[in-house]
Amino acid sequence: MDKRLKRILPKVQKPSRYTGGEYNQIIKDKDSVDLRVAFCFPDTYEIGMSNLGMSILYQTMNSLDFVWCERAFAPWGDMYEEMKKEDIPLYALESGDELKKFDVLAFSIGYEMAYTTVLDMLDMSGIPLRSEDRKDLLPIVFAGGSACVNAEPMTPFIDIFLIGEGEEMDNDVLRLLRRAKQEGWSKDRFLEEAAKIQGVYVPSLYDVEYNEDGTVRSYTPRSGVPARVLKRIVEDLDASPYPVNPIVPSTEVVHDRVSLELFRGCVRGCRFCQAGYIYRPIRSKKPDTLIRQGIEAIQNTGHEEISLLSLSTSDYRPLSGLCDGLLEYCESRSVGLALPSLRADNFSVEIMEKIQKVRKSGLTFAVEGGSQRLRDAINKNVTEEDVLNTCALAFSGGWNTVKLYYMLGLPTETDEDIVGIAEMSEKILHCWRVNAKNKNRGVRITVSTSCFIPKPHSPFQWEAQISQEEYLRRVNLLRSSIKAKNVVYNWHDAETSVIEAALSRGDRRMADVIEEVFHNGGRLDAWTDYFRYDRWNRAFEKCGLDRDFYASRERQVTEILPWDVIDVGVRKSLLIREKERAYRSELSPDCRKSCSACGAAALLKGAKCDE
Ligand code: SF4
């Protein structure tokens, strides 16, 4: 270990997040590989090490014998200051080598507020921020992850975007890069060849023009590249590699457990939910596969919990059998099962009792809208009756804490809908009084609201976000409407949501704002400790960009959108139809009831979505 590190580690919080050496990390001989990949997560160790996508791709890239993939995370503020003082560049955890020595820096970007940290990690590595300033083939900078479905704000900084699922795609690109390195290709030649791989977006090969009013006029692809980049998926999740020996973090991380991914995509089609559209088509894993992988991962890590992950786990049809299969092994070893997301319309006490055999936890429901009209407008397909029946079941089953998530600022929302949230809480409180198994323990009902953010590739991608002032007016209306003392109300600040909304629907000119914020100390903007609203607003001003043009402007459905160059497999016509139905508060059936022909099944080359 660098002796300077030995000097500073005792001075910083959680030093073990900077040392590597964890159980199950992959070590290779750097002289026996052709490519060294620094897998960069633009946030802290605790967040990155809890990211299932990172864990899967770390394994798949290292499954190539000519590649050594190592991890790098953004240091927390105290370590950042010490590294700056000691002039220590950013390094990879496995080898301790500085990232400048690597062939590839591959960023996993799942959140727009991580953009400044990407620039920070490049800068801490001594690598020029902009692609045009990196003339040589190596090091080359990749990026993937859900935020890249609108890659435009980050295009000047990233050489190649990997759109969709990386298990196979990343390795295709690494095989090509190995050949390019061995045959001494120029960077441009490599980029042209890489653009021929499905899912690879090379932004430098597309010219963008804007109209007077600031909207996009056209995207012109250079010859030989596709007009739109179709995302890449893994068709057969049962056959796809899964990390049964994930790294065991040496310090507490956000999700300190085994994560089992039950399926990708979602059958529901909630109109505010980007994930529900960009992860289509729906593909499930078989219970046998999951039970085998879960048990192996517990044996190889010693973790005490398995999380059953998906966008809507209670929609996984064989959930009960899966729980039985896992509990057969887990219960006697005090290994718990956890369900991250629950829907109020298919809650089952039977499942909950199984889940809670080892560890009892509270219940969380995402209700989203405060009235039936609004829930229909957003296609949530949850009724007030569903919520109250579920609470009655839970209270009579001995639960006494319920968390309810809502969004404020959804399209068509009225004050009546907001007051409806308070009324629902009152009804839940009454439901507790009637059904509670044990009233002595009291009840805790937590209502939490966040500010709705319109996202690309969703039916609400054309919507205006409400202003910060309007969000706070609605928060205060709800605060004054909630009377009962057993009901606790928490609300997210709107400042981050406004900036996230602008970044989410930004175009290439947004890059100047991101770089300006970085140069003024912006990093780790996903944390309130570091996020500075004024710094962002000053940057918009300095760069001559109108923040609200991006965040709170309604778009016409005929407008060319910055992310139209990316094809996530879902037809725009379906998104427009769903938007129109929202304004008529009309429901759409979920995929199990009838396929809406969204277009995503075409990515399965003939197979059907498994609902
Ligand atoms: S193709 Fe049909 S079943 Fe599949 S995700 Fe789209 S709407 Fe749902």
Q: State the CATH topology of the largest domain.
A: pyruvate-formate lyase- activating enzyme
Low-confidence stretches: none
Largest sheet: 6 strands, mixed
What is the strand tally? 19
Number of helices: 20
Outline the structure in words:
Helix 10 links the parallel strand 13 and strand 14. The chain has two domains: 3-230, Rossmann fold (3-Layer(aba) Sandwich), CATH 3.40.50; 258-492 and 569-582, pyruvate-formate lyase- activating enzyme, CATH 3.80.30.20. The chain contains 20 helices and 19 strands. The strands form six sheets. It has a six-stranded mixed sheet, covered by helices on one side. Strands 15-16-17-18 form a four-stranded parallel sheet. The protein has helices spanning 3-8, 45-48, 52-62, 77-86, 115-124, 166-183, 187-194, 275-278, 287-301, 319-330, 349-355, 372-377, 384-396, 415-435, 468-481, 494-504, 510-519, 533-543, 547-551, 572-583; strands at residues 35-41, 67-73, 104-108, 140-144, 160-162, 200-201, 206-210, 216-221, 229-230, 258-261, 263-264, 283-284, 305-309, 336-338, 363-368, 401-408, 444-451, 487-491, 566-567. The longest helix has 21 residues, at 415-435. It is globular. Iron/sulfur cluster (SF4) is lined by residues 280-282, 591, 595-598, 600-601, 609, 611. The site of iron/sulfur cluster has 12 residues, from loops.
Keywords for this entry:
611 residues, alpha/beta, Rossmann fold, pyruvate-formate lyase- activating enzyme, 2 domains, four-stranded parallel sheet, 20 helices, globular, binds iron/sulfur cluster
